[in-house]
Amino acid sequence: MNTTLRYRPLNLGRWLLWGTTALIFVLAPLFSDASFALTLLSQMGILIIFSLSYNMLLGQSGMLSFGHAVYSGLGAYIAVHALNFIGKGTLHFPVSLLPLIGGCAGLVFGSIFGYVTTKKSGTTFAMISLGIGEMVFACVLMFPGFFGGEGGITTNRVVGSAVLGVTYGPAIQVYYLIAAWAFICMIAMFALTQTPLGRMANAVRDNPERAEFIGYNTQRVRYIQLMLSAFFAGVAGSLSCINYEIVSAENVSAIRSGGVLIATFIGGVGLFFGPILGAILFTLFAIALSSFTKAWLLYLGLFFLLMVLYAPGGVAWLVAIQLPVLRARRLTDLLWPYSLAILAAAVCVIGLVGSVEMLYHAALESGGDRHIQWFGLNVDVRTPTPWLVTSALLLCGGLATRYAMQFVQRRWDTIQLALRQVAT
Amino acid sequence: MEFFLVQLFNGVSYGLLLFMLSSGLTLVFSLMGVLNFAHASFYMLGAYFAFQISTWTGFWAGLVVAPLLVGALGMLVERVGLRRVHAHGHVAELLFTFGLAYLIEEAVHLIWGRAALPYHVPAALDGPLFQIADSPYPMYRVFMMLISVSMLVAVWLTLTRTRIGLVIQAALTHPDTVQALGHNVPRIFMLVFGGGAALAGLAGVIGGAAFVTDPSMAIAVGPIVFVIVVVGGMGSLAGAFFASLLIGCLQTFSVSLDWTLAGLLTTLGFSMGPDTPLWSVWSIKLSQAAPVLPYLIMVLMLIFRPRGLMGTRDE
Fold first, then answer.
1. What ipTM was estimated for this complex?
2. Which of A74, A188, A234, B81 has the greatest number of beta carbons closer than 10 A?
3. Domain CATH code at residue A214
4. Owning domain of residue A254
5. Based on the structure, what is the number of domains in chain A?
6. Do A146 and B280 touch (CB under 8 A)?
C-alpha cells in the first residue's frame, strides 16, 4: 500500500487572475465601437503572443535574439499559402485553426535554424540570430515565386464554409479569433514556465555551468526552448496573416525583430506578465503616436534607452516593487515625491517634444511652410523664441527631474529600511 | 585575367575597409566583452560628419576632424551610458547599444533628412591612377587602401610598441592585475571604445564618399561586420583581418558573376531546364545570391568550426 499525500488547495488567486484576463479580452471591444479601437486591440493581441514567445528566449532562457521575426514571418508565409489553398478548395481546413499550421511551420524552422543558433549562448547567440535574420530576409527577396518579392502575397480570409455563422468577414470576428488564440497561448506559455523544462531554462539562464554539472545539456535546453518559442511566434504570424490578409518581406525583417525586442523589454522580461504590458504599450506607441508625429521612432528609442539605463526590469518591475510598499500601507508617503517627479518629467518631455517636432519640421517637412499649429499656437520655426522656450523647458525639466528623483530615492530608502526592520 | 585583377583590387580595398570596422568591434569585444551594436552607426556618423565638414572646409579637414569627433562621441557614450549598465551584465550592454543604434539612426533622419547626401570623392582623387590591361583603375580606391593600411599599421604599432598599447594588451587578459598595478582600467576601456568608434568613423569618412551616404548605410554594413567577427573568431584580430578580406572579395566577385547552379550541373552532364523540380533554386544567379553568401559562410562556419577561423575561445 503506497499512498502519496497530496496537498493541492484551490488556487483562488490564479483562477481570479485568468478569469479577469478572459473577461477583459471578451469585453474590451464593447467599450468602443470605433473600427480604430478594434484594429488597435487586434494588433495588441497578436503582439502579446509574439512578445510572450520572445520572452521565452530573452527572459526565461537568457537568449537575446535579434532575429525572432524569422519564425513569425516564415510561419505567416506558410499560413498565407495554406489560406490560399483553402480558398482554391485544394485544402480542407478550418480557418480558425490556421494558426496551428503557422505554428507548426514556426516549429520546423525553429528546429532548423535553432540547431545552428543555440550552439552558442550570450553575446554570440545574439550575433548569430541577427545573421540568420538577415539571411532569411535576403532569401525572401531572392525567391519571388514563393515569397512574392517586395509586394508580398495577398490572400482572402473569407473562405471555406461558415462555421456557426462565423465567416471572418467582419473585423470583430477576427478580433475574437485573435483574442481566443492569445488567451490559449498565454495559458500554454505560462504552463510551460511551470514545467521542468521551464525551470531548467531558468537554470541555464542563471548559471549554465552548474546546469551542466547537474547533468543537463544546456544546448539542448536552449534548443527545445527556442523551438517551442518559434511555435508560438508562428501562431502570432499566422494571426497577423489573417488580420491583414497580406504577408510581405517586412514580416521577417530586422525591424520586426527589433520591435518585438523593444516591446518585450519595455514591458519587463523578469515577470511573466511583463511582455503583455509591453505589447500593449508598444502598440499604443506604434499606432496611436505614429498618427500624431513622424518622430515616434525617436521617442520610442529614447524611452527604450531610458528603460535600459534606469529600469532594466521594465514597467512590470516598476509596478511589482510598489506592491510590498502598498501592502505595508506606506504608498501614501510616496505620493508627494512621485507627483513631483511626474510633474518635472512632464515639463522635460514637453520641452523635448517641442524641440524635436520643430527640428523635424525644419529638416523634413519644410516645403515652404515654416509654421506649426500647436493647440491654437502659431509657431514660426525660423524665429529663435520657440527654440529658446523649448530648450529652457527641457533643461529646467531635466534638472528638476533629477532632484525629484533624488527625493523619491531618499523616501524609498527610508521606507525600505522600515520594512526590513519590521520583518526582522 | 583583367577582370580578375580589377575585382581583386576592389575586393581587397573593400575588405580593408571592413577590417577597419571589425577591428574596432573585435578590440572592444575582447577587452570589455561588449558587443557594440551601434558600431556601424558610428560608421554612418563618420560619413555624415565628414559631409557636413566638407561643405564648410572641404574633404581633407573632414578626413581628420570627423573621426576625432566620432571618437569623442564614443568616449562620451562609454562614460555616460555603457559604464552605468555594465553592472547589469553583457545582455544589458548589448541592449543599450541596440537602443543607441536606433536612436542614432533617428537622429540622422532628424538632422540630415532621409535622402542620400551628395557626398562625393574630392576632385583631387577623382580619376584613374593606373591601367590594368586596358581598363583604368580609380585613384580613390587606391587611396582607400592606403588610408586603411596606414591606419592599421598605426594601430598595430600602438598596440605592440607603446606603453599604453602594452597596458591595453595586459588589460585584455588580466584587468584586475592591471588595476592593482595602479592603472585606471575604466579609463582604458573608455579610450579603447573611443578609439574603436574613431576607426569606424574613419571608415565611414572614406567609405561614405566611395559608396553612398544615406541613413540606411549603418543597417547595410552592420550585420556584415558581425558576420566577420563570428567567422574570424570572437575576439581575434588576425581572424577578423582574414575574414574581412574573404568577405570583401566574396561580395565583390559574386555581384559581377552570372554563374548558376544549373549551369554548373549542365557542364557536369546533367540536363537542366525550366521543367526541373526546384528550378527557381537552380537558376539563381550568383549575383542574385550575393547578399546571402556572407551569412551562409557564417552558418557553415558555425556548423563545422564553431570557434571561427582563428578563435581561441569556444564559449
1. 0.85
2. A234
3. 1.10.3470
4. 12-299
5. 2
6. yes
